Amino acid sequence: MTPNNIESNPILDRLPRHLLQYIKPQNYEHYSSIDQAVWRYVMRKNVDFLSAVAHNSYLEGLKQTGISIDSIPNMYGMNRILKNIGWAAVAVDGFIPPNAFMEFQAYNVLVIASDIRQLEHIEYTPAPDIIHEGAGHAPIIANPEYAEYLRRFGEIGCKAISSAKDYELYEAVRHLSIIKEAPNSSKEVIHQAEKKVEDLQQNMGEPSEMALIRNLHWWTVEYGLIGSIENPKIYGAGLLSSIGESAWCMTDAVKKLPYTIEATYQDFDITKPQPQLYVTPNFAHLSLVLETFANTMALRKGGLMGINKLITSKALGTIELSTGIQISGVFSEVIEDQGLPIYVQTTGPSALSYREKELVGHGTLTHNKGFGSPIGKLKGINLAIEDMSPRDLRAYNIFEEEAVTLEFEGDIIVSGEIITGKRNLQGKIIMISFKNCTVTHHSKVLFKPEWGVYDMAVGKSVVSAFSGPADLNSFNLITHKPTSETIHIKKSKERLQLEALYQQVRDYRDGKNKTISRTKVLDELIEHFPTDWLLPVELYELAFKGDETVLCKCILNHLEHIKQNKPQVGKLIDDGLKIINSKVNV
Question: What SUPFAM superfamilies does its record include (predicted)?
């Protein structure tokens, strides 16, 4: 079940429990009339501009995903329509950890930050918001080829191994995005947060798999262009939702490069417009590059490299051996010999699985203090244990109730009395349990008889290593506590008064109250809120449609006055008027 106050559907019902901790109710009634006006302005301007420069899936996708130009989308309504294309949407509070974000994608669920940017940040916000997610991501997923790329990206991306510093950077970026969007943050507080992000970015060391795949996500899903270098179209959500960057990116000031695997190593700065962008010839090419990158990941390569990545991450991860047995836990040590792992050790609660399903009796209660096992072949025997027939096993004394000493290549020695073994569906031995067991490597004792039963995983090699547990039910994953939450300050009396004026204009346009005097609204605005520019633009639209030339002239005079006193909003005003004057039926 999803959290309270969230309407579910068959796609959301498939989500694993640990992802539900990030979902929050949308609380649609919390959007103010100013928020609705911000949405409407951005969408009208975007659709007007993007109809010429966006990939043709965008406009069609707006219709298919139920996104209105005039009103912030209601998550319930979106979900009813999205399920027709096999997707769903959930609301979250700003940035969530990258692995979780991608795992949602793997389940065909779009993560939407339900807050909306302030009027002061109408062109661009560093914080994820409903304009970015709802108006940027959602329309393009109506394209089946792109939707499959997004799902596959999530499936691979959520297995990418992070470094300990990645999570620190995630928290710092989340904090920066929150305080930059908060209306009462001081310049000093923002400066300190920016400096922390900058310092972390410059001292990340060797980039982790997650850092590299996030680069690919940024240059495609967020800031991707499609078509030819000479005449590209926009499909990235960051561009589709930014009225500033969508125009800027089409100029020669932004370098256009062919999209290749090289984009993996191109970092980005979330707080600034992008100096270069990558152009993919088609959506199929995105999947080709993704699979090329996936071939470099520990998920597919395994080996010593994969184990070392998990040790560096200091987080829950899994290795899979050649027999299919999977060891999940926090990996703390690996003993190597001639470039190969010969013994691996986890610390704390660990679990054993086969094909993503925990082996009965081998969960974290059994292995609550870690798990260690040799990897590889027995010394002097060409046949790996997993490939031995029952007759071979008998010949080497690998048999129930036999006392045996197994000497592995690399000098790991396991000596004890065999209790039993477990086999996989193909009949291969995947685990052997011993009593009175001692495990050593040279003079180092790795397991003592008094520690209890020794369960030895069987496998001649590590074929995969990835982030997270093999079986999602093996561990308590509901542990996410963000260090900072989106700031919502109490509204002042003046702010409520301004919202009331916006609401009157909205009610008039929607036909809810045609008795409202728009001249009176304008007079109040000029007297009490002389620098507000968006409501006069909305008033002008109504006057223009009604051929009220006197009112139009008064509003235009007031807007000219605002432009002189606040030149930074001049282009926003001009763009709004241009859409109205061109009588574009948006």
Answer: Aromatic aminoacid monoxygenases, catalytic and oligomerization domains (SSF56534)
Give how far Cα 9 sits from Cα of 65, 292, 348, Å: 15, 34, 37
Q: How far is 188 from 172, CA to CA, in rounded Å? A: 16
* Alpha carbons 338 and 467: distance in angstroms, whole number: 26
What are the structure tokens assigned to 372, written together?
A: 């260690």
| Six-digit token string for 94 | 């700003």
Q: Beta partners for 91?
A: 112
Distance separating alpha carbons of residues 466 and 156, to the nearest angstrom: 10
Instruction: Tell me what the pLDDT averaged over the chain comes to.
Output: 89
Nearest alpha carbon to residue 174 among 134, 118, 115:
115
Query: For the purposes of burial, counting CB atoms within 10 Å of the CB of 489, is it exposed (0-12), middle (13-18) or buried (19 or more)?
Result: exposed
Q: What is the pTM of this model?
A: 0.86
Half-sphere exposure of residue 182: CA atoms within 13 angstroms, side-chain side: 20
What is the signed CA dihedral for 140, 144, 147, 148, rounded to 10 degrees? Answer: -160
- Range with the lowest mean pLDDT among 53-62, 101-110, 159-168? 159-168
Does residue 586 carry a pLDDT above 50? no
Q: What is the DSSP string of 241-271?
A: T-TTHHHHTTSTTSEEEE--GGGGG----TT
Residues in binding site: 132, 137, 222
- For 456, phi and psi rounded to 5 degrees? -105, 120
Rounded distance, CA 195 to CA 202, Å? 11
In this prediction, residues 354-360 reach a mean pLDDT of 96
Q: Say whether pLDDT at 126 is over 70.
A: no
Contact (CB, 8 A) for 260 and 271:
no
The tens digit of pLDDT for each residue in 142-196 reads: 899 999 999 999 999 999 999 877 777 777 777 777 777 666 778 888 888 878 7
- Per the annotation, binding residues for Fe cation are 132, 137, 222
pLDDT tens across 72-96, in order? Answer: 988 888 888 888 889 998 988 877 8
555, containing H or E segment: helix 549-565
> CA-CA distance, 278 to 261, in Å (whole number)?
11
Question: What tokens does 331 get?
Answer: 């990996």
Q: List CB contacts of 184: < 8 A, sequence separation 6 or more.
A: 487, 489
Element (H, E) at 354: strand 340-354
H or E element, residue 174 = helix 164-181
Amino acid identity of residue 375, one-letter, is I
